[in-house]
Write a structure and sequence with these properties.
Layout (H helix, E strand, L loop, with lengths): L2 H12 L2 H17 L3 E2 L1 H10 L14 E2 L4 E7 L2 H4 L3 E2 L5 E2 L8 E7 L4 H17 L4 E7 L7 H10 L5 E4 L2 H11 L6 E5 L4 E7 L6 H14 L1
């Protein structure tokens, strides 16, 4: 038997039906529990079909990859950020400082971002679970508030987002993203009752992210 035939026989032996089946199972698990990402091409595709989701032209697209939660340094939100007026989908304005004394989860997101769409139902669940204990969830779109007004409003209704939803100002968005040093969405910031950023979550993994955020909220509420 020549070397070529021996190589073919070894290949057949290695790729047995059981090995093939196991490989397919592993690949499926990776697909389900793997990291989610938004790319600039996602934004451009969505913008072509729905111009209302465009951001201002001079702002760069964002890229999102799910990372383990980072424990923030003892960073306190500046008074200027806490006092900044943020437009809401209801036509009113709020400030993050209004929620002083509550544990707050601030989420940066956009309607065109796939991982954001996957994460928001989980945030709705967390809001229902912990709001009676003092958790305030605030969802801030990074899109242009004028161009995306209708699409964000429709998104909020479709996803039954019954927590505070509005738009991040450019100053607030830049300040928060400088903390994580990631120009990416979704990003979530868990803020203590006295305004300290406790943990940050960048990107979304359907397997890892929800329990990580839930545990962090529990620790903050019990702290």
């Amino acid at each position: 038997m020549n070397s070529h035939q021996q190589s073919e026989n070894k290949s057949r032996l290695f790729w047995s039906p059981s090995r093939i089946a196991l490989t397919l199972v592993v690949l499926c698990l990776l697909a389900v529990g793997g990291l989610s990402s938004c790319t600039s091409s996602d934004e451009k595709t969505d913008r072509t079909t729905n111009p209302n989701t465009d951001r201002t032209a001079n702002q760069p697209p964002v890229i999102s990859r799910a990372n383990p939660p980072a424990t923030a340094p003892t960073t306190t939100l500046p008074a200027s950020i806490l006092g900044e007026r943020l437009q809401t989908v209801g036509g009113k304005t709020i400030s993050l400082g209004e929620f002083s004394g509550k544990v707050m989860l601030v989420n940066l997101w956009a309607t065109w971002c796939g991982p954001c769409r996957n994460e928001i139902p989980e945030l709705v669940k967390l809001h229902h679970e912990f709001k009676a204990r003092g958790l305030e969830v605030v969802g801030l779109s990074t899109e242009d508030p004028v161009r995306s007004a209708e699409s964000v409003k429709n998104f909020v209704q479709a996803f039954k987002m019954d927590y505070q939803v509005g738009w991040a100002t450019q100053n607030l968005e830049i300040t928060l993203m400088q903390i994580t040093q990631r120009d990416a969405i979704p990003q979530s910031f868990l803020i203590s009752r006295d305004g300290r950023i406790l943990k940050q979550f960048v990107g979304f993994s359907p397997v890892a992210t929800p329990p990580q955020i839930r545990q962090a909220i529990e620790e903050a509420l019990n702290g």
